[in-house]
Design brief:
By secondary structure, the protein is α+β, with helices and mostly antiparallel strands. It contains two helices and eleven strands. The strands form two sheets. Strands 1, 2, 5, 6, 10 and 11 form a six-stranded mixed sheet that branches. Mean pLDDT is 83; it is low at 3-22.
Length: 148
């Protein structure tokens, strides 16, 4: 192989390996905290799932973030690492019910739902700190809850 062909090959190989080694930019995250309430009362347990909405023609919207409400209903979202936040942009929000809420929220125990999507639409995660309180009514759970 001649020197000029070898140089071109080496440059092409280095560029390819650079792309594979993760030298690209990391996705932008915004830290997200909030409180989950149902009929104005904190809901402990279960899981909140923030799913990014695909931009323009893209099929891949990116990785979803999740948060698990504590005993006061407070949560922080995690995408790649604990508490790192959610991808910046628009998200749909789903609440996945805890295994058994008879002890913590007996008023909800007989409602036959497993998952519900926030009926008010999408939420937006901005760069930096985001306080996004998520609230559902019992009517939302009855009307929009999925009985999986």
């Amino acid at each position: 192989m001649s020197c000029s062909r070898w140089a071109a090959f080496s440059i092409g190989l280095a560029a390819s390996l650079g792309g594979l080694s993760g030298c690209g930019s990391s996705p932008e995250l915004g830290r997200v905290t909030g409180v989950l309430t149902i009929d104005g009362q904190p809901y402990p347990g279960g899981k909140l799932l923030f799913t990014p909405v695909a931009r323009s023609e893209s099929v891949d919207a990116g990785r979803a973030a999740f948060g698990i409400p504590d005993t006061e209903g407070r949560f922080e979202l995690s995408t790649f690492a604990q508490g790192d936040g959610a991808l910046v942009g628009e998200h749909t929000v789903q609440f996945l019910r805890g295994a058994d809420d008879r002890a913590t929220r007996p008023d909800l125990a007989d409602l036959p739902f497993r998952r519900v999507t926030l009926p008010s639409g999408r939420v937006r995660v901005e760069p930096g700190e985001n306080q996004l309180d998520i609230g559902f009514s019992i009517d939302d759970l009855k009307r929009y809850g999925n009985r999986l």
